[in-house]
Amino acid sequence: MGITSFQRLVTGLVLSTLLVGCSSTPSGNVRVVDRNNATPQRPTVTTGQYVVRRGDTLFSIAFRYGWDYKALAARNNIPAPYTIHPGQTIRFDGRSGSTPTAVVTQSGSTPSSSSKTTVIRRPTGAEAATVPSVASKPTPVPMPPA
């Protein structure tokens, strides 16, 4: 049996479609999105402490307060593999004796014996007014196709 005219027609259409699809030119209106600064940068907390809760990781605590997890581990003498335990205190200032004001938050609406409490010490006075400046990155410019 040979190839029928219908099979030749279908084969020709498939090959033509493939060739046309491969030869199309891309659109000139390419939108470039800078995702390097997609999330707003949080100012680094440089004073106070955090009490580790069940489920916390050093990475999540460091991310939440604007730290690199390795720098926070070094500040608190936590060796690799950076294991922390509930109830452990993570210090952001590296000092043991300071008297800033305390902010206490509780999870849940009613206190109970198993209520989780987080203590974050915030600076008072002139220390509270200082916020580190963040340098902005230049906006990327799309390059014409080569």
UniProtKB/TrEMBL annotation:
Q: Which Pfam families match?
A: LysM
Domain LysM as annotated: residue spans: 48-92
For this protein, the record's InterPro entries field holds: LysM, LysM_dom_sf
Give positions of region: Disordered: 89-146
Q: What Gene3D superfamilies does the database record attribute to this sequence?
A: LysM domain
Tree of life domain: Bacteria
- Where is this chain compositionally biased, Low complexity type? 105-118
Q: Which PROSITE patterns match?
A: LYSM
Q: What is this protein called?
A: LysM peptidoglycan-binding domain-containing protein
Taxonomic path: Bacteria, Pseudomonadati, Pseudomonadota, Gammaproteobacteria, Pseudomonadales
